[in-house]
Amino acid sequence: MNRHVFALQQVARRTISSSVRRQVDNKVPQKQKMFQEDNGMPVHLKGGTSDALLYRTTMALTILGAGYVVYELVKAAFPQKKD
Prior knowledge:
By secondary structure, this protein is mostly helical. It has a domain at 42-77. Helices cover 65% and strands 0% of the residues. It has helices at 2-17, 28-36, 49-77. It is flat. The mean pLDDT is 85. Keywords: Acetylation, Membrane, Mitochondrion, Mitochondrion inner membrane, Oxidoreductase, Transit peptide, Transmembrane, Transmembrane helix. InterPro entries: COX7a, Cyt_c_oxidase_su7a_sf, Cytc_oxidase_su7a_met. Belongs to the cytochrome c oxidase VIIa family. Pathway: Energy metabolism; oxidative phosphorylation.
């Protein structure tokens, strides 16, 4: 039993340590330049269409949630009469 665990550890160690690492481009300087330029846009929208879509979705959900809270509060404040 112990021998099998040791063999499994060796195989796992061998496959992890021998895997080839791929080089990743450093995109930080380009992103910093894009976010620091003064083009009149707010920083939370400088990321492009995905940022705009996320912003609009968040705002819509916030407005809907606030409306629902007001609805529930009014419904609780004025209960229906029982016959």
